[in-house]
Amino acid sequence: MSPGGAPVLDVDALLDDPATRIVVCCGSGGVGKTTTAAALALRAAERGRHAVVITVDPARRLAQSLGLTELDNTPRRVPGTEGDGSLHAMMLDMKRTFDETVAANADAEKAAQIFDNPFYQALSSSFAGTQEYMAMEKLGQLRRSDEWDLIVVDTPPSRSALDFLDAPKRLGRFLDGRLLRFLGSPARSGPLRLIGAGLGLVTGVVARVLGAQLLRDVQSFVGAFDSVFGGFQERAEQTYRLLQAEGTAFVVVAAPEQDALREASYFVDRLSAERMPLAGLVLNRTQHVLAPDLSAARASAAAEALETAGEHPLAAAVLRLHTGRVRRRDRERRLRDRFAAEHPEVGMVEVPARPEDVHDLDALREIGRALGGSDSAG
User: Fold this and answer.
1) Is residue 323 part of a domain?
2) 3 state SS of 155
3) E-strand spans in the chain?
4) Which InterPro entries would you find in this protein's record (predicted)?
5) For an engineered disulfide with 55, which of 62, 225, 263, 297 has Cβ 3.0 to 4.6 Å away?
6) Is 49 contained in some domain?
7) Nearest to 378, CA basis, from 268, 293, 280, 302
């Protein structure tokens, strides 16, 4: 059992198991998903796996820590890894991935028509949910290629951890939604001329609100995209089933903070409801105390005595610093234990906070050792 009473998340057993083909790191923004994903992929590679890590983090910290000058939509070999495995890394380019998906589901003429459409250009670059949808599309592409025996996914930095599962469905519903179909409908004629006249009147109003050019762009997009939409839906459903299958493992990453652990709790419940396999929780950046047996009360009292006597100001400052760290550690442990009590079946591993940012493979290896249980926090 872990110090908080929860079962231990055995990361090395997970990574060493050849049946594990996909690891998805998820959680709320700012908790260290990108670093955790990179550290997991590096540890797996140096333990013999042929791994690729996908990041969608716009800060691009991953490239620096992996010693690469840049990352793009093509997996690149990471130099300097040890052992018999290999590690590749890539940065999701959602526009390029969307283009690749269109090209795979349409003939050249139809694809060119879609690519040139201004509405598509906006949709593929900035529409809410596109990034999450394309992250799943890229995951499906890599899994179908069967070039790597382990894929580690760093999920998008969404407002909520739940967006990762919801956004692809939302985008699919939007693309097949009534409003888009209505806006894309041309005016009818013949026996339905009365209906067509009414439709023309409404679309005339819509054109004045949205602008005639935008309406024409939407109509052109819907007409061209109709022929490829079924392929999009089918691939999204295949990837969603892949996330539910054996061989996939979700790792929820959280900081030892109330909001982050609340999001983690929601995500654990959602994964269970969606029947998706949860490996466990990584509690990231926990407070490490060098003298764990010295309580905050004793340290504070000793600092106050030195300050009152006017002696050893440096020692008093160190004791005050220790007091703050112990109080923070104790607060984090209460939050951890509360989560463990609410989810007693969820394995957990803690990763101590580092004094500096991750910027190279050695730092990632250190985090990997903590994930594997080789390091422990006081």
Assistant:
1) no
2) coil
3) 22-26, 50-55, 76-77, 86-91, 150-154, 248-254, 278-286, 348-352
4) ArsA/GET3_ATPase-like (IPR025723), ATPase_ArsA/GET3 (IPR016300), P-loop_NTPase (IPR027417)
5) 62
6) yes
7) 293
